[in-house]
Write a structure and sequence with these properties.
alpha+beta, 2 domains, 3-stranded mixed sheet, transcription
Length: 248
């Protein structure tokens, strides 16, 4: 009895099953095109299309001059974003990974686009400080983030630039406390979505592969938004954990 659906999809599904069951190990090559053709009695075009499906799903990746290899899709570690996490731009404590985590950043002053202005409670076009972060574990990108702060809060102070000055690399709470702004809460919104082309290239995954996106906004004691950020991580390599403390 013939398998339902296109032949290339059946081949892709069978190869995914073999990878999920550990029959094809992470970082090992998948069978060559000629062996796949023979095993599935398929044409070059059908086999190539099946492999493209695997690449798009993040199961395999091509290595120039070497072939197509199974991707290690096991969760690398947990990103603990609870209230006890280290106060740094990373806003995360890495659990279960011994890799040294660091970050690179670039900062510019710009006018707030409508969506960011709404999140910060300011007018569209008001000046903001935007910082892009690339977080690295053993020098490999694991998390991307973009942060926006209203320039009206930090302009002319020692904390106007998140990565320069005496309070550099202190995180939102630590930096703003230095100018008398007390951050009392943060709100986060999580979503799963396909990676953009730029995100996929930076994180080393396939274009369209699922990522976890976190929108985080910090508020001061007057419930004023003092910073908002977008964070993106690979959904297949990192788990996100929250510690929720209940107080009477």
């Amino acid at each position: 009895m013939a398998e339902p659906g296109p032949v290339y999809q059946w081949i892709a599904d069978d190869l995914m099953r073999r990878i999920d069951e550990g029959l094809l190990k992470p970082e090992s090559p998948i069978p060559s095109r000629s062996r796949l053709k023979e095993a599935y009695r398929a044409s070059d075009q059908t086999v190539d299309r099946a492999v493209r499906v695997l690449k798009a799903a993040g199961y395999v990746e091509g290595q120039f001059g070497r072939g197509v290899f199974v991707v290690d899709r096991s969760a690398r570690a947990t990103l603990d974003r609870g209230t006890g996490s280290v106060d740094s731009p990373f806003a995360t404590r890495v659990v279960g990974d011994t890799a040294e985590v660091d970050w690179e950043a670039s900062t510019v002053t710009m006018t707030a686009p409508p969506a960011i202005a709404e999140r910060l409670g300011i007018a569209t076009g008001d000046p903001v400080v935007m910082t892009r972060y690339e977080y690295l574990a053993n020098r490999r990108p694991v998390q991307l983030a973009t942060s926006w702060e209203p320039l009206a809060i930090t302009d002319g102070t020692d904390v106007a630039h998140p990565e320069r000055g005496p309070y550099a690399r202190r995180g939102v709470r630590g930096r703003l406390a230095a100018i008398g702004v007390r951050v009392v809460r943060a709100r986060e919104i999580l979503e799963s979505r396909p990676a953009t082309g730029w995100e996929a290239q930076a994180l080393g995954c396939a274009h369209g592969q699922c990522v976890t996106a976190v929108q985080r906004t910090h508020f001061d004691a007057d419930d004023r938004a003092v910073e908002t950020s977008d964070t993106v991580i690979r959904a297949d390599r990192w788990r996100v954990a929250y510690s929720i403390d209940f107080s009477s």
